[in-house]
Queue: 4 jobs
Job 1
Amino acid sequence: MIPVGEIGFLRAPEQSDLKWLMHLENDMTLWYVATTKEPFSTLTMQTYLARHQSIVTDQQLRLVLEVDGDPVGAVDAFDYDPTVGKAGVGIILEMKHRGKGWSKLMLEAFENYCAKVLNIKNLYAHVPLHNEPSLALFTGSDYTIVGDLKNWIWMHGNHDDVRLFQKLLE
């Protein structure tokens, strides 16, 4: 388990997280930031939880933020390239826990884990231009704005632009 400030810790997803993960993955309002465009079945999620092995074999990693015994958020590494030492990063926090600084704490803990354990030296994030809290999170976490990608995501029947952020880890 990876400590996240004084609020909780990051850990691997467990079978006991199934209901929470189903809600997260099947929330259509979040699909625009992923390639997901259809609901996941319970069997699909159970299989994912049972077979997920490691970032090396799956080229992705999800860690769950647990606070007071409950899952409240997640941080993902995706598009992992061990040769170059890079990965994309995505972060989600339940609505009722936003605005408390927890996303920044979660991102800092994840970055430390990536740098010191996974030997990832380069993280990047695609943030929709309308997502002001996430733009502020990555800007405030010393990510460099690399540029904007036009028509990069499909949201509510329209294409939307994203800002590309990058951070070189120590």
Note: The chain has a mean pLDDT of 87.
Job 2
Amino acid sequence: MENNFFMTEDMLWDYADDFLSAADKMKVDGYLQQHPEWRERLDVILAEKRAFTALSLETPDAGFADRVMTAWASEQAHGRATAPEKGQDRMIYLISAVFGLFICSALVFMVLQGIPARLPVEVPAVSLPEVNWGGIFGTPVLQYGLYFVLTLLALKVVEKYLHQRQMLDKLKMQ
């Protein structure tokens, strides 16, 4: 018997259902011989299986499916009647749409200005004291990139707010 064999409840159920391979079955057999408490668990599982197979199967009476579907439909109607009205946060959705337009407009402006054509192919060697900071911060790539990042951050804040509202609405429903 290997020292690193670890018995689990799932393995015991698989053993009882005869789902284990021959090698695993031999390991479990050896483990069960050494550990009588696991053998008792297996006996309980086998007793449950015998009890389930001894149960008689009953067919549902006529109209059972109709009653279930009627109950389900009434639960759905009650849930829709008590659910908060959608569209309460129309202002938030409007703000999200405006931010989405900002993102699209930034991308359109970048394409229309031909920014990729203006980018240098080679990065010039510039020493730190000679850096033209105004030129760097004045580039359209940085301006629109910053615009784009700020818009994404604002959308993330709106998303977190809407998620919180959904969680609060679920808590109110309970």
Note: The mean pLDDT is 80.
Job 3
Amino acid sequence: MHPNPHAAVVLLSGGQDSATCLAWAQKRFQRLHAITIEYGQRHHIELGSAAEIAKRAGVPQTVIPCDSFRALGGNSLTGDEAVLGGVRDDNHLPNTFVPGRNLVFITLAAAFAYQRGITEIVTGVCQTDYSGYPDCRADTMVALQESLRKGMEFPVTVHTPLMYLSKAETVKMMQDYGKLDLLAWSHTCYNGAVPPCGTCPACELRAKGFREAGVIDPLVARVGG
């Protein structure tokens, strides 16, 4: 199998960042395939959002089951714990942090890409977000990329186009691409609310980004909130 550097696999969660990465990848690669991980998330609206975004972008999508995170528990995105602001006393991370999630997701994306001779992986991790998740940092991505290359003997590259961008800058990116309409179908709210709750950390960060960019959030324009 000859690696194809003109194709890419995009991790598409259904959120603002992954939708932006899909638009970014469409500008750079001839062929795309989106994958969405069903990881036991509380809010299945994310899966519907990902499917809608992929369809509207004209990109084939595959949903990969990986529900072990629900069995592991210990966070508010896969369990029954309420989403809280601030950080935990024990690890100084938000209770929305799902340990190992991005590491597993990117490994699954790389395995999916390997089977198809695709070397390029695109993910929306970003270390400028409020969250401070350790599996979103640039040094983590560099280390994971090296591990994947060694472990699969395959020249995989992990692209993180949003790594150093603010939310306002990602909004402007989508505006420049003429793809803001895709964000009308994205889902960010940690409480799974439609219209968005507007008060959880993810909603506040999203609203701040659109406000600073001077752009009306197309999701809010579509469903209110």
Note: The chain has nine helices and five strands.
Job 4
Amino acid sequence: MDWISFLTDNFIPYVTSGPNTGRGEISIKCPFCGENDPSAHMGVNLTTGKWNCWRDATHRGISPYRLIGALLGVSGPQARLVVQSYTGAALDEFDAPQTITRAPERTIKPVAWPDDFEPLRGIFCDYLLKRGIDNQLADYYCLACCRVGRWKQRVIIPVFDKNFKLLGWQGRAIVEPKKASRYLTNHEQVKRTVFNLQNISKGGEVLYICEGPFDAMKIDFYGKPRIRATCTFGVTVTMEQIQLLSELSSRFSKAILLFDTDLAGVVGGFNLSDWLPNISFGNLPEGNKDTDKMESEEIKGFLHENTR
């Protein structure tokens, strides 16, 4: 079991040394103690896989399924899927999960809008127009820009909760950066949620789940109010996003996965459809890899034809 990769992928803090960490171990906050654990009191041996809590002797074992179930708040079959993806072990008699178990709540706190972020202008508007995002659409999703500091030369895509409280943002570079990725995210909690919650939380007829925010914006804007869209901010999906998408999709008559590639939507080595069995797959019209080159009427026609 590759515990380091598992913990990193799921934003679970760990330490590699300290008073509670033996040789060949890492330590994490004990999920069985919960908030009663003030520090990282659970050690995990990277060789044997054994784990134990220094606060409570009953919180120990060797089964990775039990520990992963407690850390992520998932069922036994779901935990086995996660273990399989980080070990390559066989799945035995377990199939893909049919239900999602709600994980323990992690607090997602509103953040402040930086003073350096300003209304769209000049080259930022030009960039967005090339991607099929006009001023009306940009205003609807509260897009901004930044010309200085860490977020220099980036379009700012705010991320809100269902009550329109700002949770964070993603910055998309308008020129190819030399020492950074095209997308930067200000906080890990952005990957604990999904895009456009302020508009889709009440449900509707069809929900499209996209990979990136620009695709989601165009589908959502030209499909509303009957058709809505969200995105997972990249090809990898966290368990918290899975749980949220499970809840959201239940409020729509139909949910359609519309990612750019077949490799997208991977959760613990499995496709998003393995975790959300009621979801269906969608494809853009032949010759279109994304919505950038599609005019508004083309998008409306595509949505009409594929969601009847």
Note: Confidence is low (pLDDT under 50) at residues 89-104.
